[in-house]
Amino acid sequence: MNIVDVEIEYLGHSGFLLTYERKKIAIDPYNVSNFEKVGKVDVVLITHSHYDHCSINDIQKLSRVGTIVVVPVAAQSKVLRIKDIDMKIIGVMGEREIDNIKIKAIPAYNIGKNFHQKDDEWLGYIIDFGKVVVYHAGDTDIIPEMKNIKEIYANKKIVALLPVSGTYVMNAEEASRAAHLINPDIAIPMHYGIEGIGSLDDAHEFVRLCKENGINAMILDKI
How many CA atoms lie within 13 A of 164 on its CB side? Predict the structure, then answer.
């Protein structure tokens, strides 16, 4: 999918590849099935340390010498094993700018569940390409921090990547309410399709509910 010169491709589960002016950013790559097509990336963003989001094997395969890998504090000990990368630590509300692409880390956490505690300071990311903002929500429920995104980035196109599998994160109905709160130009479901964690049916239900509420939503095929 292309929106104002930003190409967004789905790597499966919660993984995405964003390409802008030949700069490649991978978010939470896990079990990437087509490394030859994806190629080496310039930046990897990791939301938290769980195996299906911070996959050392996938980061190694996608990285070249000097690839910037941005991680929360809790994931740094895992990523330190990887040689020749440029690891950057980021905290909640921290910001990085890489070749005029602005990256902001925002909270991602559960409310009423114990899988992703707010005190863990795990992350979602807002990647600002200038005319387009991509919000990768990370592993989260509906949280108050979502409500300000549309306001802050009112003059930009917003793409929201939202988890829909339930159990560990929002289910499809909750994610559709999050999309309504954020009011993006496009909402895309994620966090489904691996064993025991959601299914394509959850993604379809999310899209259906979004469209009922006037939110443009679509499923991306895995590359």
Answer: 31
